[in-house]
């Protein structure tokens, strides 16, 4: 199964209500409970300067792309056992695709 086409506007709404309390997306944005996500595409997990990651995140060595984010956002704790990310995930594929579409616009 491929990734459904995402709607960045819908993804922005989901990000605001489900992600923004822990993450920022702007260039130079602060790390919060979670790391700043600007430049996430092509970045390796556990590598944002100044953010204290678990060994699980650092050791996973995931290269964040659309597919890895799509898989991760379904159930972060299953994808990276030992992560401190408390978010349960987006169960609906469309929601994950929408958030990824938003991130592609907001984090480049």
UniProtKB/TrEMBL annotation:
What the entry lists under InterPro entries is as follows: Cyt_c-like_dom (IPR009056), Cyt_c-like_dom_sf (IPR036909), Cyt_c_1A/1B (IPR002327)
UniProt PTM: Binds 1 heme group per subunit.
- The chain positions of domain Cytochrome c read 6-107
Q: Write down the Pfam families for this protein, in alphabetical order.
A: Cytochrom_C (PF00034)
UniProt keywords (A-Z) are: Electron transport, Heme, Iron, Metal-binding, Mitochondrion, Respiratory chain, Transport
One GO molecular-function entry: metal ion binding
Gene Ontology CC entries for this record = mitochondrial intermembrane space
Per the record, the domain of life is Eukaryota
Compartment(s) where it occurs, according to its Swiss-Prot or TrEMBL record: Mitochondrion intermembrane space
Give a yes or no for keyword Ubl conjugation in this entry: no
Where in the sequence is the signal peptide annotated? none
Q: Which family does it belong to?
A: Belongs to the cytochrome c family.
What PANTHER family does UniProt report for this protein, alphabetically?
CYTOCHROME C (PTHR11961)
Cited function: Electron carrier protein. The oxidized form of the cytochrome c heme group can accept an electron from the heme group of the cytochrome c1 subunit of cytochrome reductase. Cytochrome c then transfers this electron to the cytochrome oxidase complex, the final protein carrier in the mitochondrial electron-transport chain.
Q: What is this protein called?
A: Cytochrome c
Name the source organism: Syncephalastrum racemosum
